[in-house]
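Local shape tokens

___
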Amino acid sequence: MKKIVIYIIASSILSSVMTIAAYKKYAQEEATPFPSYGNSFEKTKLSSSNPSSLVSSSGLPDFTRVVEKTIHAVVNVKNYSKKYSNKLHFDPFDFFFGFPDDFGERGKIYPKNNDIPGLHGSGVLVSPDGYIVTNNHVIKDADKIEVTLSDQRTYRAKLIGTDPNTDIALLKINEKNLPFIYFSDSNKVQVGEWVLAIGNPFDLNSTVTAGIISAKNRSLGILRGETQAAIESFFQTDAAVNPGNSGGALVNTNGELIGINTAISSNSGNFIGYSFAAPSNLVGKVIQDIKKYGTVQRAYLGVRGMDLSKAEYLKAYNNEMHQNIKPQQGFLIGEVFERSGADDAGLKKGDIIKSIDGKPIQNVADLSVIVGTKYPGEKVKVKVIRNGKMKTFNVTLKDSQGRTKIRKREEITPSELLGATFSPLGKEYKKDFGIDYGIRIQEIRTGRLSAIGMEEGDIILSINGEKMRKPSDVDRVLKRYSGDVTIKAIKQNGQVYIAGFEMN
């Protein structure tokens, strides 16, 4: 009997050792700190799937274990910018659906020649070797970016890349063995589940608030002032988010990243009930592209249209097209762009997109985020209703230039980033406008120029003070250029104006 007991104990110990070893090997091989796609979300080891660990002895919610796991991976980001050094910074987005992170050093006096912090925000460590994700508007126009960890260690951060279309930026600090947060599959997030927002509101480090996901797939229009190719499909939460929280983490009860806090709904600039976060799948795709290719690989379906839930728009469309389409879930195609993937596949104006790759399309936000996580050259299955019948189309997605291959940053010309093609200025234009130099915008697409309101037919006189005489001058002046770009141009009505943007 004694031998049997000893045997059972030895077997139990051996089994435990083998289980622990197998788990360690599994965690090392399968769990990846930097986001990857495919089946990796299924493989990533979850930290705490036991609901009882979220309840205190009094029966109330207890998030201490989640906070302990995640709080040290959220950092303070300071934007030092000459642009904000001599004036109070005011951002109109602070009011109603506003970016909540423009918490500048207002009212303080600094010695001359000292760096002046312009904006404060938050960031999330997503790898142990110092990669940090934050919002683009947190570090916009920065001359220097400083990152402070929860233990008050401070580092100069390098800007790896930005994506104004999603308001995401990737930073890097030189350090190892840092705490970080794993990505979760944001497609699995459910309305009503608990979430925590972690950040640095009002420059108060390591602040945690709790709430629930109150809605998904919100499109607010706040990024369209920055770019016409904005991708918005926010999580809406009632977790308190205030100035300084932008770029911080929205985590689930497993302590995994499900979003990056980006905006608040407010009339004052401070939290009044709702906040919004970019979903982790979209964030992960963006920073992975920046790290691997130097620029985001964006795919386009090649359509323009509207939600069918908006009765007033639908009524106007029905009146114009003599249709009788009822309000419903889906996306109504109002225009198909020539030579796009949708055009090649046979999609038409009036088609109602109901699903892409089996995922239902309820509104614009659904469409933008599903296509926004794809790559040029990928094939998608699009189901539409046409004349009351369901049809399926296989669409090969393309980039904004109509290409179907991945291209690295160095392969993209400045003209492509500007989103336009140019033509030499003919004699008639020179005579009409009384000029002897300039180039004309022949065609404009989504890009830097469309974002600042330039249009087809506008004449560009100079870029950064250099006169434009032929289309190739654009690439010559801006090749390998990084920083503020100033454009002097003439509208078709003869009005001379100056506009600018940042090239990075």
